[in-house]
Specification:
The radius of gyration is 30 Å and the shape is globular. It is of the alpha/beta class. The strands form five sheets. The protein has a seven-stranded parallel β-sheet with strand order 13-14-12-15-16-11-17, with helices on both faces. Strands 18-23-22-19-21-20 form a six-stranded parallel β-sheet, with helices on both faces. Helix content is 40%, strand content 19%. Helix 7 crosses helix 22, helix 9 packs parallel to helix 10 and helix 19 runs antiparallel to helix 20. A hairpin with a 2-residue loop joins strand 4 and strand 5. The protein has 23 helices and 23 strands. It binds adenosine-5'-diphosphate and magnesium ion. The site of magnesium ion has 4 residues, from helix 10.
Length: 683
């Protein structure tokens, strides 16, 4: 009997070389082979009659090959043209620039070919995939739904199919059902062994769908349990913060506005978490401008009220400084003195802060990555708040968490993280959503304009500045070298200062500036001494200057949707009508689509979903950094419903305890996922 864990070299015909080749596809064991799922299927049960085929569609034909002809329709283009006699008439198969096939396509052989239907009275098919029917196995594959596998140059998809079939015909250990019967029924799941057979060699489309459903469900479940395991293992008894929260109360009373219902709801969730004796792990998701900072402040002050230390970590120095300045101003009256810890502090200042953190005299610290240095030690860390979480990896989060015994952890993120992805990435965290913007916000009017409208744009900007508003102008990376980009931004700033806004203050902010200088410029802009801020993308996350109400993005087509949304979110923070101008002349379809999405939508969730559809999960966030293993079969966009079901079951299982005997096989799988996840983070 074969075991799933055995190396594939135990299979007939797999030597060292084949094994090395298969390893390129991630196939090392027999189990890996079984999990090398087809990437598509071909329905050879009903082939469409030639007469009914439509030009431009992809169709499959089968028939007997005639004589190959070589044709040169254009210079540099070689075409193989082969007539094929099908049951219902004749067709022509063509291949472009694949002369090596010439010898293979022998007259008299039977072929099954799939490709795009061309025009003309005789059906011409431009083949992108074909098989010759050479032996019995091929004949078996003939009139059914045929799985198509991704292969390598040496191991074709067809060879892989034979291999998978060979394995599935043997008895294999490790294919037993691992979900309890009760769950199979509740979630209407196909049995595991059946699912595995049907995913490779489906009887019909319905069975295939059920098989896929089951395997997607499993993949999510294992992932979620793996993450759940992580939080069980990592979760030590946490701090039960006291119920009194004098500081937070005082803080909120001095605000010029009332909290939104959404903010109150989330704050209440945080309150419950913090007062419980379990360590809090909560993700707060809210669109840009939804007021996440208030939730952060609540958590920080609640901890400080009870005599604990509190940390707020941000991905950039500008953002850290902004939070720090705001907090310092508002906390002065309350007798709390925050500190700012960033990489650009000089050694003496840094060491002074280290000391205050270690002996507990500093209760509240705001900072960047500098906070996770090993020199940073806390006397009694009570809460960790991480702003704009999507910029940090899991590892950095853990590094900070581990500085306390078991501090409560709150991470905050703006979209773009669609719900499906949030559930998966942060499966070990509870999720709160601020699903409401503060009142009086008007949708930011967004326009995509070409170069020819620049003069008009400048006229409009002058009017806005004259009316007392401030303006951001962002320049992306355009040139190969950073130096050139800097020159572009500098030139633009000079041009604006001299020719367009001679009577106003124009500032320039870029990534290469020393942090102190950046802070200085930002401070001048915030204080209203500068009216126009030209910048490279350093202002992207979190910056909050309510009086700025126009965002101009140069070469906007160079940015992804997520970044554009973040940038636009810098304006429209006061009650006034805000504007965003995308200066762009997109050439690609993708670029056009991004601009159109920005003009049409302002809701970050919608934009995130669009981004997701355009780019796919891995691209949006860099899954590796988040410790998310590649998914074999599940798709985060299309399988959200299944993900939610898996999550429901995962929660139930974790609650009952994964150590229960009935969950034993599941536990083993979850442990593997957990291990893989940890390894990813280490590498
Ligand atoms: P983000 O969620 O993007 O971090 P911020 O916390 O920076 O948003 O808040 C955006 C702006 O909205 C800030 O200027 C903040 O003072 C203001 N704000 C926050 N909550 C409210 C509220 N309930 N009513 C009015 N304005 C608010
Ligand atoms: Mg923020």
């Amino acid at each position: 009997m074969r075991k799933k864990e055995e190396p594939i070299t135990v299979l007939k015909g797999i030597g060292k070389q084949r094994a090395a080749d298969l390893q390129k596809l991630g196939i090392v064991t027999v189990g890996d082979l079984l999990e090398h799922y087809p990437y598509r299927y071909e329905d050879r049960t009903h082939l469409k009659p030639l007469k009914e085929m439509q030009e431009g569609d992809t169709e499959t034909v089968t028939g007997i090959l005639g004589q190959v002809q070589e044709v040169y329709p254009r210079r540099g283009l070689k075409m193989l043209r082969v007539p094929v006699r099908c049951a219902d008439g004749n067709a022509v198969l063509v291949w472009f620039n694949q002369n090596h096939l010439k010898g293979k396509l022998q007259p008299g052989l039977q072929i099954v070919a799939t490709g795009k239907v061309g025009k003309g009275t005789v059906r011409q098919i431009s083949v992108n995939d074909f098989e010759l029917i050479e032996d019995e196995e091929d004949l078996r594959n003939f009139q059914r739904i045929v799985p198509i596998y991704r292969g390598t140059e040496r191991s074709s998809g067809k060879q892989l199919r034979k291999l998978v079939e060979q394995v599935l015909q043997q008895e294999i250990d490790g294919l037993e059902e691992f979900l309890p019967q009760e769950e199979l029924e509740e979630y209407h799941l196909l049995g595991y062994r059946d699912a595995l057979y049907q995913i490779h060699f489906p009887e019909d489309w319905q069975q295939l769908n059920r098989a896929r459903h089951r395997l997607v469900f499993d993949e999510f479940l294992e992932l979620l349990l793996g993450m759940g395991l992580h939080s069980l293992i990592e979760k030590k008894e946490g701090i039960a913060h006291g119920r009194q929260e004098v500081l937070a109360g005082q803080f909120f009373r001095q605000l010029p506005f009332a909290l939104t219902d959404a903010q109150k709801k989330v704050i209440l969730e945080v309150k419950k978490d913090m007062e419980s004796s379990k360590a809090m792990k909560r993700l707060v998701q809210g669109d840009v401008g939804s007021g996440k900072t208030m939730v952060a402040v609540y958590a920080l002050l609640k901890a400080v009220s009870g005599g604990y230390q509190a940390v707020l970590m941000t991905p950039t120095e500008i953002l850290a400084e902004q939070h720090f300045l705001n907090l310092r101003e508002k906390l002065q009256a309350l007798g709390v003195e925050p500190e700012l810890l960033t990489g650009s502090l000089n050694r003496k200042k840094r060491e002074c802060i280290y000391k205050k953190l270690q002996d507990g005299t500093c209760q509240l610290v705001v900072g960047t990555h500098a906070l996770i240095q090993k020199e940073v030690q806390f006397a009694n860390l009570g809460v960790v708040v991480i702003d704009e979480q999507h910029r940090f990896g899991v590892r950095q989060r853990l590094a900070l968490e581990n500085k306390g015994l078991a501090p409560d952890v709150l991470v905050m993120t703006a979209t773009p993280i669609p719900r499906s992805l949030a559930l998966t990435l942060y499966g070990d965290m509870a999720l709160s959503v601020i699903d409401e913007l503060p009142p009086g916000r008007q949708a930011i009017k967004t326009y995509c304009i070409g170069e020819h409208k620049r003069e008009g744009l400048y006229r409009f900007l002058r009017e806005q500045v004259a009316a007392g508003f401030q303006i951001y102008i962002v320049c992306p990376l355009v040139e190969e070298s950073e130096k050139m980009d800097l020159e572009n931004a500098t030139q633009l700033a000079d041009h604006l200062a001299v020719n367009v806004f001679p009577d106003y203050g124009v500032g320039l902010l870029h990534g290469k500036m020393p942090p102190a200088e950046k802070g200085e410029i930002m401070e001048q802009f915030r204080a209203g001494m500068l009216q126009i801020l030209v910048s490279t993308t350093v202002i992207e996350v979190g910056v909050d200057v309510p009086n700025a109400n126009v965002m101009v993005i140069e070469n906007a087509e160079r940015f992804g949707l997520a970044q554009l949304h973040q940038l636009r979110g810098r304006v429209g923070r006061g009650g006034e009508q805000a504007y965003c101008f995308l200066v762009a002349e997109p050439k690609t379809d993708d670029g056009k689509r991004r601009m159109a999405v920005m003009v049409k939508y302002t809701d970050g969730f919608v934009i995130a979903e669009e981004d997701f559809l355009l780019r796919g999960a891995g691209e949006v966030l860099g899954t590796r950094q988040h410790g998310l293993p590649d998914l074999k079969i599940a798709d985060l966009v299309h399988d959200v419903k299944i993900l939610e079901q898996s999550r429901r079951l995962a929660e139930k299982i974790l609650e009952e305890g994964l150590e229960q005997p009935k969950y034993e096989p599941l536990r083993r799988k979850a442990e593997q996922v957990y291990q893989r996840r940890m390894n990813l983070q280490e590498s």
